[in-house]
Automatic annotation (TrEMBL):
PANTHER family: FAMILY N-ACETYLTRANSFERASE, PUTATIVE (AFU_ORTHOLOGUE AFUA_6G03350)-RELATED. Residues 7-158 form the N-acetyltransferase domain. GO terms for molecular function: acyltransferase activity, transferring groups other than amino-acyl groups. InterPro entries: Acetyltransferase_Butenolide (IPR053144), Acyl_CoA_acyltransferase (IPR016181), GNAT_dom (IPR000182). GO terms for biological process: UDP-N-acetylglucosamine biosynthetic process. It comes from Periconia macrospinosa. PROSITE patterns: GNAT. The lineage of its organism: Eukaryota, Fungi, Dikarya, Ascomycota, Pezizomycotina. Keywords: Acyltransferase, Transferase. Coiled coil: none annotated. Signal peptide: none annotated. This is Acyl-CoA N-acyltransferase. Pfam families: Acetyltransf_7.
Length: 175
């Protein structure tokens, strides 16, 4: 089957800068500045599987052109067998609403099914993604409660609250 989509999604890793920028532009909490030199590169290198989306028109011989910026990304982290986290599903605003997030999510789920079929895959869905993930078999954890610990995010509760409010407004189509 031929894929004539305007986007190509391939295994790979964006630069630390683009990882930061895609998270920020997509409305996700970006990593703090002091994490950019060591923590972010180490985190990306330790991904179990990562996908990056590029515009097809800029590809050269099936590869991203030098300096070509990603349109989207998503990754799986974990032990590769029993416990995985699907995270960093982020699409640049200029490329949203074109099916990139859905394609990345499906490809990640397909990868898990092929390589870790017994895995418990979890994720935290921000408001904009909460309608997307049930399409791929994800269920609400109720009556359990999802929790997180992120020191730099918890120090900036007002900033995190503003991000979540923007995400809710976008999910409702208000912005």
């Amino acid at each position: 089957m031929s894929d004539n989509s305007e986007y190509v999604i391939v295994p790979g890793t964006p630069s630390s800068e683009w990882y930061h920028d895609l998270r920020k532009l997509a409305g996700l909490t970006p990593p703090p500045p002091d994490a950019m030199s060591e923590s972010v590169p180490r985190s990306l290198a330790n991904s179990w599987h990562m996908l990056v989306a590029y515009e097809r028109k800029h590809m050269v011989d099936g590869q991203p052109a030098p300096g070509q910026n990603p349109a989207g990304m998503g990754r799986l982290v974990g032990d590769g067998a029993m416990f995985l986290i699907m995270c960093d599903i982020a699409v640049h605003p200029d490329h949203q609403r074109k099916g990139i997030g859905k394609r990345i999510s499906q490809m990640l789920v397909d990868y898990v099914d092929a390589h870790a079929p017994h895995a418990y895959v979890s994720l935290v869905a921000d408001p904009m993604g909460q309608a997307l993930y049930p399409k791929f078999g994800f269920e609400d954890v109720k009556p359990a409660v999802g929790m997180f610990r992120c020191v730099y995010s918890q120090k900036d509760k007002e900033g995190r609250k503003a991000i979540l409010e923007r995400q809710l407004a976008a999910a409702r189509g208000e912005i």
